[in-house]
Amino acid sequence: MKKPVKVAITGAAGQIAYSLIFRIASGSMLGPDQPVILQLLEVPVPEVLEKLKGTVMEIDDCAFPLVHGVEIHSDPMAGFEGTDYALLVGARPRGPGMERKDLLTANGGIFGPQGKALAAKANKDVRVLVVGNPANTNALIAATAAARGGLDPKQFHAMVRLDHNRAVSQLATKTGAHNTEIEKMIVWGNHSSTQYPDLSHCTVRGKPAKSLVDQAWIEKEFIPTVQQRGAAIIKARGLSSAASAASAAVDHMRDWVLGTNGKWVSMGVPSDGSYGIKPGVVYGYPCICKNGQYEIVQGLSIDAFSRARMDATDTELREERAAIEDLLKA
Ligand code: NAD
Ligand code: LMR
């Protein structure tokens, strides 16, 4: 049996965590042979911590073979001690009629102190996935604070995997294929309504996706449905997506750590100039992961239709950045 690793989850009493914790505890994220110690972080509010104690009672009641410890914390300096993997979920969700960037004021301030605490206390190889919205800019805030403490910004990702999975599912339904028969899906840019789900390189059962669907469907149905899926779920459920968000977080971290076997996945990672997206934002790119490292897929042709959409989502990310520039210096 491997040595236990420490997995920190913020927002541990919230709705995503209620699904995520149990998936991690059962081995879906790091594999069936990887024991875990769960570091559950919440705000220092007695009612919230009491609720979290109830979740811990349920973790105990599952008698998970892989769980070697469960900790409750309300201080990130204590909660991130020795952390190997961190899932930063804790943040306010949006309600009907809001855009995710409307949450910047409420949530941005959470991620600087968490980045700083991760740099001070976590394992130096820690991998961090930011789920709390607006995820890309929150990841930028956390990565910037952590870089001052010696971590590499590449250790901080934002989650666009839910968008990627939504895009795969929409295309599978449209073409009558199974999800597993869709490859080379890409979601570029921001986890927001400007994201660009791109079928240019995508294949279905090895055939180009664009030979199976028409351009009108791509423009009028596929792209808007994926872009607006979060809002559609809020409208239907009265709450934002939770189980599907947890599942995407498990997919993202599993692929980052255990590898993608050459398959492409969409990950929000620090822009490095690839595809004309200048450094300074956390941008959704097609990635391949191997030996615990990710690489942006290089050399793809970008047509004018894609270029315009990739630039529009980049522009939005830079506007978000400008709105929180003070938090990057704090
Ligand atoms: P929720 O309100 O059910 O839970 C959030 C929890 O975070 C609360 O229990 C709250 O007390 C806690 N929290 C707040 N600040 C914290 C802090 N500083 N430290 C630790 N915990 C803190 O919300 P939810 O539905 O679980 O969603 C959480 C976030 O994830 C929201 O911002 C939501 O918009 C976002 N989200 C992102 C994606 C994505 O694809 N990236 C998908 C779904 C939801
Ligand atoms: C989602 O995409 O479901 C989440 O980001 C929640 C939201 O606000 O849409």
TrEMBL record:
List of catalytic residues: 191 (proton acceptor)
Domain Lactate/malate dehydrogenase N-terminal stretches: 5-146
SUPFAM superfamilies documented for this protein: LDH C-terminal domain-like, NAD(P)-binding Rossmann-fold domains
Reactions listed under catalytic activity: (S)-malate + NAD(+) = oxaloacetate + NADH + H(+)
Residues where substrate binds: 94, 100, 133, 166
Start and end residues of each Lactate/malate dehydrogenase C-terminal domain: 161-322
EC number: 1.1.1.37
Family to which the UniProt record says this protein belongs: Belongs to the LDH/MDH superfamily. MDH type 2 family.
PANTHER family in the cross-refs: MALATE DEHYDROGENASE
Name of protein: Malate dehydrogenase
Organism: Sinimarinibacterium thermocellulolyticum
